Amino acid sequence: MIQLQDSNGNPVSQSGVSVLATIASGGGTLGGTSTAVTDASGAATFTDLSISGLLGNRTLQFSATGSTPVVSDPIALTPGPADAAQTTATVPDGTAGSPTVITVDGDRGEQRDAAGDGQQRRHLHGAVYAHRGG
Q1: What digits encode the pLDDT tens for the residues 12-27?
Q2: Which has the least CB within 10 A, 74, 77, 87, 108?
Q3: Number of neighbouring beta carbons within 10 Å of residue 84
Q4: Do the beta carbons of residue 77 and residue 55 sit within 8 Å?
């Protein structure tokens, strides 16, 4: 929720003001409805904003005609869970006593690891496997 304020930080009760949300820093794509209109108390509520892109911090800017834009605190974009419908595992035939490499492919939308190379490494009961995320 964004509240209209005067230059002293006091709430301003004004309905019908359009407030626009944009990505101020960090890049990516802002999804959902990026414009909200203030109610009688001067509050604009954004109900379905989403950010997609590489992992990392973003800030959002909120602006309205005739008002000074404000920037949000940092918002961390982190990996979400793999989509079970898009995840497959391949287990090759192994030899008893020899290491077996298990490869798991999963769809993680637009998200990537911090290095940006699409590799997520996890430890699974002492064995290391590479997750090649989409």
Answers
A1: 999 999 999 999 999 9
A2: 74
A3: 8
A4: yes
